[in-house]
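request received
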Amino acid sequence: MVEATKPGEKAGRFPVRAGTLAVLGALGALAVYPFFGTTYMIGVLTEIMILAIFALSLGFLMGYPKLISLGHAAFFGGGAYAAGIVAVRLEAANLFLTLVCALVFATLLAVLIGVLSLRNTGIYFLMITLALAQLVYVVAEQWTWLTGGTDGLVGIPYPELFGFFSFDRFSFYYLVLLLAGGAYFLLRLVTRSPFGHVLLGIGSNERRMRAIGYGTRVYKLAAFVLSGAVAGVAGALWAHYNGIVAPVDVNWPLSATALIMVIVGGAGTLVGPMLGAAVVWFLDTGLSSYTERSTMIMGAVFILFVFFARGGIAGIARSLWERFYARTGT
Amino acid sequence: MPALELESVCKRFGALSAIDGVSFAVEPGERVALVGPNGAGKTTLFNLISGELPPDSGTVRLGGRDVTRHTPEKMAREGLGRTFQRNSLFMESTVYENVRLAVQARAGVSFQMLRPITAYSRLGEETERVLELVRLSGRAGVRASELSYGEQRQLELGIALATGPRVLLLDEPTAGMSAQETGEMVAMLKELPGEITLLIVEHDMDVVGALARRILVLNFGRLIADGPLEEVRRNEEVLAAYLGVGEEVRDA
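response:
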């Protein structure tokens, strides 16, 4: 009993160790997969992992400070365009250069959009993020000499490292895996830090947070910018992977897809949104090679989750675990 | 210098004058009760002091400094703590985490992102000290939503105390409590460090009598009495307000 009340322990919650083991197991499986898998599947997994980083960034925002943004594609696409423009227009596909440019551009964009949208809360915040993100979309579509306009920016190569190493499909897979793992562990660290606990408090009861002395807006802005930066990195990888960036990569349906990934996977966890990205990819893009109704199936699955499993996949896993835990005793 | 001072504070909601020229001063360490019939404006007055509502006119001073129209977070940093009439907790977090979040508010580490919170042992020590003050040490690991109502009320107080306030506004600390829980809450409040200035909204006159020597009576947004309990109890206007005798009857 005394043990249970020790500092910071979360009595009766999803055991942290089980979650960490699952993540390490998944990372290990993904690390050995290319030695057995087909080229096609390596590509699929690369794509999913990039989308998983994107979903992770939005899930962080939705799960901790509970900010629901419908403009997250602006940071993903913004990062993709930044990397693509550096690689194509400046002909510099150095990995560090494209990644850093994408990171910096997405960060600045997030500061701008965050400052403007965080004056509002709830549905108004959501609408303003949507409106501002659509402005980014319009710029991407209209500024043809820079962005390629509606045709998109084509011919983006895989990145290289100072002329002595060029990524190919195989090594790029590992780069994405490394960054996906890195983004996950970085945000995990953040959620457990003092800052992360402030975000959780804001998501839980913002009024009380202010009454005990937190200027909540600046914390929300910091979280928003961090999230935007991570999305920007995912965007840069997306540009290199596809070889093209087009206005669809900044358009609102992509923001909505990310939102669905987070909800299906489970907001309030970091693993959930990443799993959600995989599930949504298979139901939507994956099934589309077999049936024209894949979007409808995706919609139905989404509705089922909203009605019957608000906690998403992560929530289902948690309740199954708790049931198992209760049966075996503590 | 008074710990808290209000000078002709006014607040209107449309045609309703919710707070009408309220002035009073509370000395450091003083314990004052604010009473009045339902709808008298007690909670509104608390919201005006704590910055949740801006006053239309008048001045609020904390330790001599003008803090009128400060935001709630700024007021908290100036040393004002408050509890809410209806519990305002972090329901999904444990008792320990609730209090630690309030301790953290003034620890200057809230932008630390890359070390786990458990690495900051100062936070833990202070949290445990506060938990002892509100007698929740044995419940530290329990989620706030799973506490009994009385315990949630204790936690409500604990969060406010953890910010280290010099002036503490308590909005009906015993509201909805059983007689036994009320007794425990009164004992807890009596044990608070003497330097904390308390302003307590309370309906239970036994609680008022146990905690405060000085009573402020609010009616229709105006302060109608200010003095020791025995004196206020004999005040005609106060009796009229509480017995529901209208002004016109008394004047007739």
